[in-house]
Amino acid sequence: MTKAAGPIAFQGLHGAYADLAARAIFPGLATLPCPTFEAVFVAVREGKADRGVIPVENSLYGRIADIHHLLPGGGLKIVGECYQPIHHCLLGVKGAKLEQVREALSQEPALGQVAKTLRRLGLKPVARTDTAGSAAEVAATGDPSKAAVASLLAAEIHGLDILVRNIQDEEHNTTRFLVMARESVSVPPEAPIAVVGFAFEVRNIPAALYKVLGGFATNGINMTKLESYMVGGSFAATQFYAEVEGRIDDPAMERAFEELKFFARSFDILGAFAGDPERRKGK
Description:
By secondary structure, the chain is of the alpha/beta class. 28% of the residues lie in helices and 35% in strands. The protein folds into three domains: 8-84 and 173-181, 3-Layer(aba) Sandwich (D-Maltodextrin-Binding Protein, domain 2); 89-164, 3-Layer(aba) Sandwich (D-Maltodextrin-Binding Protein, domain 2), CATH 3.40.190.10; 194-280, ACT domain (Alpha-Beta Plaits, 2-Layer Sandwich).
């Protein structure tokens, strides 16, 4: 992982899972809570934070909304990634009993990751903006009928009791975080996995996407991610976010990118970074 001076910006309050990821990636550095994902980008761009840590996808919930719209125009570069296991807990006010709880407050992705458990417990999911903020709200209400789905750290920070541990529906529940910086970095030569993230929009011609992808196939480059999303609310304009394994200066990568640019209306390399070893698990 790249070196940083701190602080490390994240979305949410202290005790959020992004806060946990930031502390795991950069132990000993201060973390800076931000109200929104966009505010994380602003904090790093303006120098209030040295790095930003943002979630992009979860093994149960899927893609985190809004992030891919921020990446191309956010003015930052991807310089690292981290696969963070997520262990949700049901947190109640001091002295509360599980049988008293009627509602579970949390961020929508977190509620999606514990949906089966909440149904089994007969609890109503209530969406909030973040997990740690939900813990703070439950603590402020003092209402034993309300609980939060959040981390052990959030329980400690906000003085809540842990009613049930590890309530995620699947044990493999993992969130992938990207590390953002103002400047790009060089991937260390000794890194076993090198990854390039980029965004592009294809030209409006037949089979343009097929031809773009063909450049990576013919050059033997493994594409590990390809996601599409609309641009500017238009059904005709589609932008893609992709990740490939390899190094930017590799001749095969250069050839693939040259072919991509021939069929693309826009193309932006968002960062090159060392891949987390978790990428290799299950292969």
